[in-house]
Each structure stands twice: as C-alpha cells, then as structure tokens.
C-alpha cells in the first residue's frame, strides 16, 4: 500500500477521492494452462499431484512458473518435516509449520497461479465491531447476517460480482471449504453470494471474530486472513486497543500484507481522540501507510445496513481498486510477495527444530543400545566364564559324572579313563536329564535378569530427557520391564539350542562310526558334557580360574569328549555350539531392544528433511529475487 493517511487534531484525513467513473473493465480470461493446472490440485493435496503440476509448469518455462515450481517444492519439503518429539519450543514450530503449509495451499500457490483473479478483501476484526453490518453497507444489500448472540458460529460469506464467479470455485482459494449458495452455520463451508452491486475485480469476505471465545471461529478467522489479498480490519472506539487484533495487525506488518483499518461505530465526540491514538498505534507498528477510515455511529436499518454516506469513503476506495487494474495488481503483489518473503525466512527455525528432533532421536536410540549392549555383554560373559556352572548346574553335573575314582583316574591312560567314565555314566539317562534341566533353568534366568536390568536402565536414561519422557508416556506401560513374552521365548530358545547340541554330538558320533550301543547310552551324556565345556571355556579350552570356580569335576567333560572324539573335534564342537547359543541370545536381546528402538523408528524422522527444507527455501528466494530483477 502506498497511500499514507495522516491525522490532524480534528479527524482522520479522508481517503483519496475515487477515480473518475469508468466502464467496468472486462475480467481477463485465465491463462490457458491455469484451468488444467489448478483443477483439483489442492483438494486432497497428495504429493504426486504436486509433482505432476510441477512437471507441467516446468515444461512451459518462465520465471513465474519457476516461482510456482519452487513454492510447490517448498510445500513438499514442509510436509516431509516431522516434529514428533516433545522438545522445548516444538509446539510453536509445529504450529508455524502447519500455518505455512496451509498458507501455501490456501493462498500463495493458488494465488500465484491465478494472479489475474479478483482482489480478495477479507473483513476481519474484533467481536462486536460491526463487520457484518459494514459488509452489508458496502455491498448495498443484506448479504450476511450480523450475530446478535456471541459467539456467532456460521460460515464465512464471500460476495463477488457475477462475472467473477469462476474464480472462486472449489479448486481455487481455500479449497478445503465447501462452496454453498445459502446461509449455514457450518464453519467448514464458504457461502458464495453473487451481487452486481459489487464491481468486477473485487470480492469481499466476511470473516469470523479474531477474538471469538469459540476456538473454531478464531482458527477460521486466521485462515481466512492468511488467504486475503487485502485485510480490511474493523475495530471500534471501545475495542481498538485490544491485544488480539493487534497481534494480527503486527503479523500483517511483518509480512507486508496490504491492510486498511476501519474505525467503526465511533461517536462524533470521540473521533478526534480515538482516531489520533489509533493512527499513532498503527505507525508505531509499521502500518503508517495503511489507510484509516472512520465510520461514524449511526442507525442500522432493518436490512442490517448503515446509511450509505457513512461508508462512502470506504466504498469509494474499494471501487477504485476494483476499477484500476494496476492498483489492484500492486495490492495483490505486495501481499503475495510479503507472504513469500516471510515463508523463506520462517522455514529456518522449523529446519533447526527438525535437526534437534533428529539428534534427540539418535540419543534415545543410543541410550537404548547402550543398555541392551551391556546386557548382551554380561550374558555372553556369564555363559563363557563358568558363572553358569555354579549352584544347581554344578550339583547336577557332579551327580551325573560322580567323583572319587574318576577324579583319581584323570592321570591314567585315555582308554582306561574312557572306560571308567563310560562305566560311570552308562545307565544314568535320568541324571543327564537333570543336568539338562538345570542348564536350561540357569540360562533362562540369566537372560531374564539381564534383559530386565537393561529395560530398567533404558527407561531411566529416557526419563532424563523431555523427548524420552514423552515417548515413555505414549508408549507401552511396561517398557521399564522385560516383556511378558520373553520368558516363553527364552525357554524355547534354550530348548532349541540344547537340541542343537545333541544333534551335533550325534552327527559327530556317526562320522566316527561309533558303535550303536555306545550312542544309545551316551548321546545325552556327551551332550551335557559339551554344554559344560561351552559354559566354562573359550574355543573348548578351560582356563585355570574357571576350573577353580566350577571345581575339578568340570574337567571331566572335556576329557570325556576328547576321549571319544579327539582334541580337534572337541574344539570344533564347542565352537559350533557356542555360535549357536550366541545367535539365539542375540536374537532374544535384540527383540527386547526393539521395544525401545521401535518407539524411535515409529517416529519416522527423516534426517535429510531439514536440509531439503532449507534448500527449497533458498530456491524460492532465488526465484523471488529473479522476478524482482525483471527477469520474468
């Protein structure tokens, strides 16, 4: 806006005289590509449609098309940025991102593609300021119903000249609002009213109160104002200093939005004081060039209108804009360029916040990995250093192999030792089964205890950060404990491993053509011996400390296996059995780990999205700079 209305000591300076009466300018036909490009583009807003539109625009070339393409890419980049974690300041950036997406969809992209459409003046303001009465008075007939009760919930009303009706279809501005031609209380509908009392080239939209106590009204008012080429902000002598309207006006100033202010329902004796103060407030907030109109208090007719002379200045100014294509284009360009400039600046805090989200997600994953890596390390150590061979397992093993003469015979010849051991274990399948059961119970308990401790550590680490606390609050209630499914899974995994061990022994025995009689008595015994060796050795060789822990009887397992299969075979069997056990343990721990890492994965944070957003903003800025240079 280039006009500057200053105010003297008596009254606000009147708006400029209207341009001489001229024949209404025929509305320009839309560019040939516009109908195809905009039809349904924003109704559902899938990415594929935006890509198709962009490809078609790029094919036609031109700087204007370059800008539209860049804006569509910016829209896509914004939709790819997710801010799922509850970090400080995230709520503000979520709202900013949503507002930017909506402004691109509702106004910037459609308006950029239909630059010749009529100027849309959105009439907004405070509760009880007289917006609907002003709209009726400007049009010269009753087109919208003033709200007698507060809050008034009804659909917004858009008044346009019949020649301009094609510009306001469902595929144009505010595509999410259903078009209707009758009054309704549905805030999701836009009532279209065609009136030849309004000049072609201008449309007026009556918006809900920006400070309504009804949240739906406030949200809708903000959306409508964001889709305006021109804000006609209505206030009154009683409400002109209210905070909420000034927040909107400050936003308009920040974005260089074209604004006109109407001081409505003002008693004559208050005009000088109120108008002067209001003008100073506008100037201090960067709106000194915004025209200020005074509408004196007057009697409202039964048709909801003020006397025509009360709104003559406002009506004349709007008619001038409607009739002057150049002035109208300047208003549209000012608001549109301001919106684009604001978008390129406002994306950076969103991108920075998205970076913070990615970093927080990585920290959460690292905390969970650390907790479960420690559990895995502890389980692996306990299954190799003899820890499992204490207590019940050791007792059952000693019962199985016996002590006394077998221990004393360890230094005798291998053949004699083998005969003594075979004599000891032959006919003791029940004792072998007891060793197997003790091994199963000890191994299951080890896995359960370590996974339980890992869950507690991971929960404690997540509780230390806002992001972690948020995920814990929305995740399963038992994340701080091992899963209920772990016990049966561990039981099955241990049983399967023990069966693997027996199959290895049986296979090795068959390879060595051992007698059927020996195998029928010795597979279980040799199997438990191999398990003992796995739990107390690395690569099949016991170390001295482990012998001390488990007792001298543990050496019997290795000697027995060596006596039957030989040294090299025992090392191979122990290695295979160890690897089989490790695979199962890693699988169990990773499933428990996934209860935490799955919470992070479900966030679907795209770590490349912030940089793509910055790049898209730079492309829009480049296109804007090129258009200002006159490259278009």
Key descriptive features of the protein:
alpha/beta; 632 residues; 10 strands; rod-shaped
Detailed description of the structure:
There is one protein chain. By secondary structure, this protein is of the alpha/beta class. Helix content is 58%, strand content 8%. The protein has 21 helices and ten strands. The strands form two sheets. It has an eight-stranded mixed beta sheet, sandwiched between helices. It has a two-stranded antiparallel ribbon with strand order 9-10.
Give the topology, please.
Layout: H1 32-38, H2 47-60, H3 63-80, H4 90-113, E1 119-125, H5 131-139, E2 157-160, E3 178-180, E4 189-194, E5 202-206, H6 215-226, E6 230-236, H7 243-254, E7 258-266, H8 271-284, E8 292-296, H9 312-323, H10 325-382, H11 391-401, H12 405-408, H13 414-425, H14 429-462, H15 466-474, H16 486-511, H17 516-535, E9 537-538, E10 541-542, H18 544-550, H19 555-565, H20 567-601, H21 609-628
Parallel strand pairs: 1-5, 1-6, 2-4, 3-4, 6-7, 7-8
Antiparallel strand pairs: 2-5, 9-10
Helix pairs in contact: 2-3, 3-4, 3-21, 4-10, 9-10, 10-14, 10-20, 10-21, 11-14, 13-19, 14-16, 14-17, 14-20, 16-17, 16-20, 17-19, 17-20, 19-20
